[in-house]
């Protein structure tokens, strides 16, 4: 197995691991939204401005979970393409070796067609890998956008929480948990993007 192929396997495996962590954090945001909704309901008019924010938090969490689910599917497809690329590269190398060994044989020229065919199949797989990487990077960028939006919502949540009287600490704790979760998602997704961006222009 070439170093390039090994690094592709490692990249895809690390992405899967990071996305699992993102999914856990997105579910935590969803729970935070449910807690915030209950607190805002109890606070009544004191947390009037906080109530619609809880809906935004919950919607954002749901969308992030859906996005990560789709990205996991894309990561699995990328893994399969990596496996295919490894197999086709191995086949091409073997055909090349066989062609070299048969260089002086009577029917040496008959080896050229299988070598060319194996090369075409390998190159198509490499192009597919690049296309899938580009798709995955686009999906990850959307998750990054959601993480940035969650941080903005967390900042607004703190402002609204300051008006909530005795419920201030409870609502600020929700805002902090959303901000922390958004920061974690951002960092995890950034690591995914770094792992993939190496292959975008290769």
TrEMBL record:
State the name under which the record lists this protein: Chemotaxis protein
């Amino acid at each position: 197995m070439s170093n390039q192929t090994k690094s592709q396997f490692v990249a895809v495996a690390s992405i899967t691991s990071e996305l699992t962590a993102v999914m856990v954090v997105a579910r935590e945001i969803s729970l935070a939204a449910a807690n915030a909704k209950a607190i805002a309901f109890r606070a009544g008019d004191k947390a009037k401005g906080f109530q619609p924010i809880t809906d935004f938090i919950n919607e954002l969490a749901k969308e992030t979970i859906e996005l990560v689910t789709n990205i996991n599917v894309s990561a699995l497809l990328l893994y399969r393409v990596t496996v295919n690329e490894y197999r086709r590269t191995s086949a091409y190398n073997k055909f090349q070796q066989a062609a070299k060994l048969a260089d002086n044989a009577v029917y040496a020229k008959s080896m050229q067609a299988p070598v060319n065919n194996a090369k075409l199949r390998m190159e198509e797989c490499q192009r597919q890998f690049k296309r899938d990487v580009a798709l995955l990077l686009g999906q990850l960028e959307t998750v990054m956008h959601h993480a940035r939006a969650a941080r903005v919502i967390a900042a607004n949540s703190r402002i609204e929480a300051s008006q909530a009287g005795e419920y201030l600490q409870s609502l600020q704790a929700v805002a902090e948990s959303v901000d922390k979760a958004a920061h974690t998602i951002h960092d995890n997704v950034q690591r995914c993007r770094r792992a993939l961006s190496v292959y975008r222009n290769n």
